[in-house]
Amino acid sequence: MPAKKKIFLALSFAISLAFAQTGTAREFADIYTDCGLGAIIAPRTPVVAAITNVTFDLGTTAVSSNISSPETCAGGRARMAAFVHDAYDSLEVELAAGEGKYLDSLAALAGIEQKEKTAFIQDVRKQFAHSVAAPDYTQQTLFTKAENLYNILNQEKEKRS
Question: What gap in Å lies between CA 161 and CA 117, rounded to an integer?
Fold first, then answer.
């Protein structure tokens, strides 16, 4: 399919989502904005999320993630991933210090209860220290560093579930 046609279809789809009125259409629109690759790339921009999902794979990833793991579609993991990427430098500093407003926000995004926050942050710090000590750490891209931290957060969060 030519690129211009894909873009036209994606924009048409996004416009139709914006004006959808029925309950079924709204639920479908939520899937395209809250799930899949689009939600990860643009968690705060629903139209971009929908266009990304449609352009990337005609929305199959969004639909399948809604079916197989609906808890990821609430936007929590996508928001956490975006936050880790956007605030990585500040998180790196605060993880070294062991406290800070970014770590507080991160624990909240991860859904960690206040009573478990200190232990959660300590465990994340231990795992993160191993990541930072890797010989290739300074050569890693921001995306790779953020992805590693995101994976650590999910592992520590799952331990508490």
Answer: 14
